[in-house]
Amino acid sequence: MFVRNVHQRVYGAENVDELERLLDTLATSEDKLWPRDQWPRMSFRGGKIEGEPGGHGPVRYVIETLEPRHVWFRFTGPPGFEGGHGFTITVSGGTAVLSHVLEMKAVGRALLTWPMVFRPLDDALIEDALDNADRFLGLPPQGGAWSAYVRVLRGLFQRRPGGAR
Fold it and tell me: Is the peptide bond preceding residue 78 cis, with omega within 30 degrees of 0?
């Protein structure tokens, strides 16, 4: 099964420099984008450099692309996640768009774990990250509250050894 999951926020083009600064903080000690107060932190073994392995919670990946307006991570786990995800800033006319795209082929048990567990959690996490982008730009967050299903999943994983914290 091919999966393409896209989340984005549209801002004025005058915000592009601030969005680049925000994206540059990703996975650093000064991270302002990743919702690390509510979700497992994004971290990399040797720091944020191309080729470094890392991830967040049970999701593992390697940094493939690290540019001022585009970062891309190739999945190395969980099993059955064949592809990657990343953030991109695009500018066109009077707008700047901050997008998170996940593209992968789900195989094996990921045919079940992606739609039943990982997608709802990923959707909530990325919306929380984009809310952080809104706040960084001094705007009210556009996202909503977590669904009851996401709250149940988070409760289940927080009770497991090594679960989300």
Answer: yes
Residue 165 within any structural domain of the chain: no
Nearest to 81 by CA among 2, 163, 164, 26: 2
Beta strand extents in 13-154 (DSSP E only): 43-44, 53-56, 59-67, 70-77, 81-92, 95-106
If DSSP codes are grouped into helix, strand and coil, which group holds residue 115? helix
The CATH number assigned to the domain holding 93 equals 3.30.530.20
pTM for the whole structure: 0.94
Q: What is the pLDDT of residue 158?
A: 78
The DSSP secondary-structure symbol of 57 reads: T
**Cα(143)–Cα(60) distance, rounded to whole angstroms?**
26
Residue 149 domain-assigned (yes or no): yes
How many independent structural domains does the chain possess?
1
Per the structure block, which two tokens stand in for 41?
């932190």
163 strand-pairing partners? none
Taking only the tens place, the pLDDT of each residue in 59-77 is 999 999 999 999 999 999 9
Question: Cα(117)–Cα(149) distance, rounded to whole angstroms?
Answer: 9
